[in-house]
Please model this.
Amino acid sequence: MEHEEDEEPPLAVQIQGNDEFVSQKSSVGVTLITGYLGAGKSTLVNHILNSQHGKRIAVILNEFGEEIGVERAMINEGDKGALVEEWVELANGCICCTVKHSLVQALEQLVQRKDRLDHILLETTGLANPAPLASVLWLDEQLESEVKLDSIVTVVDAKNLRFQLDEHRGSSSFPEAYFQIAFADIIILNKVDLVSAESSGALEKLEEEIHNINSLAEIIHSVQCQVDLSKILNRQAYDTARVTHLETLLEESRSLSTKKLHDSGVRTICISGAEMIDIDKTRIWLEEILWEKKYDMDVYRCKGVLSVQNSDELHTLQAVRELYEIVPSRKWKKEEKRINKIVFIGHNLKEDILINSFRDRATV
Model:
């Protein structure tokens, strides 16, 4: 699949870590909900809208089309008056609307409402790739003090996933299913009853298939998307304060064997090393990979912990496409072994090049 944004110079810039951004407590979390056609995404949204959960949740149904282009749509605040449909109040305390043009405008209107919200859900209807929306929520100066990206949730059809992936295996283009899995923090493996009834071990094979693409994602089984909301809300996947959770994910990813994957498809690679890094050199190295595509690798997501020279603080790395941040998270503990661990999720990843270029270009 070709991406229009790859034709243009990178719009993303490095986020400078600062206490105000990290510690903002008054902002409302936004969860992106994505999923392949027929996976059950709308079923999940309806489950949330009809549940008596005691939370004030806003659900935004996003009707951007592929042909519009997200960046252009969001600056098209337009001369045609209001672009956001009427907010609909629901009996369980939720509110819902459909956005046809400006997501930023919708969020601004939403957070200006008098009633306090607990959470916002954004269903990315019609978008194959959640990365542009994630970037806006992460970076937009108008929104960062009001809302924050909480996590990306992908609904997967357990019955048809293998067919969807096999159809494009080894191809240079990938369907929505690959991108949605690659960018996900949480994957709802829906319709598991249809698979488990067929053969034993089928679900385990599907989970292995998913983790080969994205080893950082948590997988939740469901039937008709009946999931506990506490498992998908307030996950704080982009909160640098949750470094312990990130370290656990990275440790689990390290056990992933990439040697058995012989194609250059979408997959996960983890690199590690004990050498301290030069933070300026590391930024240059990252920008060569993320922005310049120097080694012909297409990185979708990146997470890591870093041991920085002349610093007693553990730094965390997060990246979504060209957008990245490196920020200090906490003090290294005396008994800890200082180490760098970085997980890359993307297409055409080259493990040896990542290991060698990191050692040569980023470390002291």
